[in-house]
Each structure stands twice: as C-alpha cells, then as structure tokens.
Amino acid sequence: MTPSIVNHLRRLRADQRGTVSVVMGVLLIPLVGALGIGFEVSNWYMITRGMQNAADAAAIAAAINGGSNFDVEAKAVAAQYGFVHGTNNISIRALEKQPCPAGGNTCYSVTISGYTPLLLSQVVGFTGDTTLNGTLEKKLSSAAVANAIQPQDICMLALASSGAAQGIRTNGSPTGNMNGCNSMSNTAAQCNGHDLGLGISFAVGSNSGCGAKQVSNPLLKDPYSYLATANPGGIPPLSSSGCAGSYPQETTHGNAVNPPTTLVPGVLTLNPNPLTHVPVTSLSLSGGNNFMCGDQVLTANVVITTSAPSVLIIENGQLDLNGHTLSSSGSGLTLVFSGDNPAPGPHAPSYTHAPTDNTNGNTGVLDITAPAIANPPTPSWSGVAIYQDPSLTSGLDVSAAGNSPTWNISGLVYMPHASVTLKGAIDKGTAGKSCLVLVADNFTISGTAGILKTDIGQCGQAGLTMPNAAVPGRSALVL
Fold this sequence. Notes:
Elements: H1 2-14, H2 19-65, H3 70-80, E1 91-98, E2 107-117, E3 130-132, E4 135-147, E5 151-153, E6 156-158, E7 166-170, E8 183-185, E9 188-190, E10 200-203, E11 207-208, E12 213-216, E13 282-285, E14 288-293, E15 296-297, E16 302-306, E17 310-315, E18 319-320, E19 325-330, E20 333-338, E21 365-369, E22 384-388, E23 398-401, E24 406-422, E25 425-426, E26 436-445, E27 450-451, H4 456-461, E28 468-470, E29 476-477
Parallel strand pairs: 6-8, 6-26, 7-9, 7-26, 8-10, 9-11, 10-12, 13-16, 14-17, 15-18, 16-19, 17-20, 19-21, 20-22, 21-24, 22-24, 23-24, 24-26, 25-27
Antiparallel strand pairs: 1-2, 2-4, 3-4, 4-29, 5-28
C-alpha cells in the first residue's frame, strides 16, 4: 500500500496537465476587469462624441436664433441627435451673453450632461459618480460655445460720403488681386470681368462681381475720424502748427522739375516758416507732432528716423517725392495731411493735401511703417501710417496709388473724402508687418492693382485695430 501511494504521489508531482487552468483561474479576474474597462471607456467615448455633436449643433442653432427662445431651439436641435432634456436623466443647459475666447460676451454656450450605467468596470471596484434607482452610474457631459455674428475684418473700406454711386468699382477688366482681403462699400460695388481676388465683398447697395462672395450689409460708420480731434496719446490737435498762415507752394510738378532753382523755399525742413531752401537727406524725430508748412518736395532720398512714435504733419501742402524715396525707420511714423479748405472767392488759395504727387508721371517710393504701440492708450496713432484730416474736403484725390510713385506701407492709409485710383501693387513697408488697410471715399481699381496679403494677426502686431463687418445670421463654433 505504502509504495503504491508513494508512486502515485510521484506521478502527480510530475504531471503538468491542468496547470494553465490554474493560472487562468488566477488571472481571470484582472483580465475581465481590463476588458470591462476597455469596453466601458469605449462606450463612454461614443456617448460623449454623440453629446459633443449635439452640443455643437445646438450652440450654433442658439447663436443663429439670437432671440428670446434661443434655449428652446437649442434643446430642439439636441433632441434630433437623441438627447432630450428631462428624459433618461439628460440635462441640457443653454446660456446667452457668455464670454467668448477672443473677448466680449456675445457668445452662446450649450452643455449636455447625462448618466450611463456601469457594466463590467465594477469588477475592478469602480463605482462611478452616483447611484440612480439602485444602479451605479457614470456622469458624461459635453459643451460647445458659438459666436452669433462672425466679424469679418475689412482691408478696403469705401465710405462713399460724397454719394458716389459705386464705392468700389473697376475700370475695364483689371487683373487686380486683393489677396483674399474683404471689402466694404457704403453704396454699391461693381466689378466686371474679375472679382479682384477679394474674399467677401460687403455693400449697402447693389453688389455684383466683386469677391468670392457678395453680402449685403448695413452702412459702416467711419471708424477713424475721431483721431483728428481726440488728441491721440496726449498729442496736441492737428491745427496747432505755428505756420502763421505761410504755406509755400511749388510752382511746377513732376520729374521735369529742376531742383532747387525752380522750387519754392522750405523743402523738407521742420522750420514752420522756412526762408531758405536746404536739401535734407535725413530727419530725426523723437515723438509728438512735427509740423511742415506747405508743399514738401524731395531733392534726394530721405530717411526719417524716429526714436519714439512720431507724427509728421504737412499742413496745407502735398508730398512730392520727385523721383526719390521717403522712408521711415525706428519707432514708427504717422504721416498726416492737415490744413484748410478753400475759402469762398475766386482768388482764395486752394491746397493739395495728398500723400504723393504723381503729376507728369512722377516716380519715387513712399516707404512708411506706422507706430506699433504696445498696450496703446485710447485714442492712439498706433497702426496709422497715413492720415488725411477728415475736416478736409478738397485737394485729396490720389490718381495712381501703388504706381508712379510706388507705395510700400504697413498700417492704415486713411483718406475719407478722397477718390483713389488703385493702379499698382502696394507692398508692406520695409520695416513693417504684412498689414495694409485702405479707407477712402471711393476706389477705382484698374490695371494690375493689388494690395499685399493682409495678415490679421500681423495687423495686431502692427498695432492696428481693423474695421470689420458682420455676416448676419452666420455663426461659428469658437470653443
């Protein structure tokens, strides 16, 4: 008996049959738990994804609705995705006047929350977030934020205060390329044969052929006229010149001029009432308002260096590049044209208040970079490159912007009562960002006219707040 028992024990010790079953028995619990967690998490993700889709659609619907029953519409849209408020422990919360990620409180938010019962995840001891009707449940939720009206930045604004029938129009069929910027006309916009490469063409009146999309929009008020009288950054008003009524005018124009003998005294000097003609090749400005009286004609290339954001005001005069280059470097320059409107009477003086004289095919380069002021005060010249005083109503037009002479400008070009014919390509200032905004009474685009690709982010870096128009009824998710 004893040897037999010993033999059986020896065979049992050497027998490996059933070993895997023992190991599997030990591992079964954590294996089932892992599978359960994987299944549960996948299920939670699918439910949450459905909630997110419903929240996105509901937020957009609430933003488009924009009325007192925006929450009703949000819940109705969510119900189409299978999430019904008050059913199966589903809760939908829709709110208006919520903070927007980019600032302001014009956004609408929708939050959808609910519970799903736990299944295999309980094997590893997970108890969920609450107990409903004796069942352990996991809380799930998704949220979305939408802006009711999406503002679209404008880089070409025709104020049309003169009553111009078409604030933006083409002359023939130009090949102009606005590089996808948006335009706005306070009257009509008419483009024949070419959409000018505009993104959205906004217009108060008829809107045909301009841009990839045409949108009707209410009249847009002048966003920059206040700078003429608001003393930006504490700078004195534009009329505080000290010119004492003396505004020398050049007698002939264009490259045919033979400087300096045929030019009047006082060319590019900071003396408000100059007596002698002294050619200047550089100016150093240290901020504030700096006045020049009458026409200013270059007799050589001129660099204006600014150690602080500076304003150069030409009062009752124009800038004649005379085939040369005027450029800015340093902290940024705002070039302002100010002065008087013609007085009544046949012998009253009249002045030209324009950034370039292109008479007789005058050439040259205007290379200006506006000041980019960090945390600028309100108001401020930050981002403003060229500014015509809005009180002026004559002697303002520019007939060959971007061509004869060339414009390289970063910032705002503001000519609210001028008729501007855009013929050439305008590029960014050598020292500036890719930001150009044009504001005039009306624009005529011809030839190969175009402006640089205005980068909204770079306009912010250039210190400029761009005008914008809204697309009514168009909403977009922002979070």
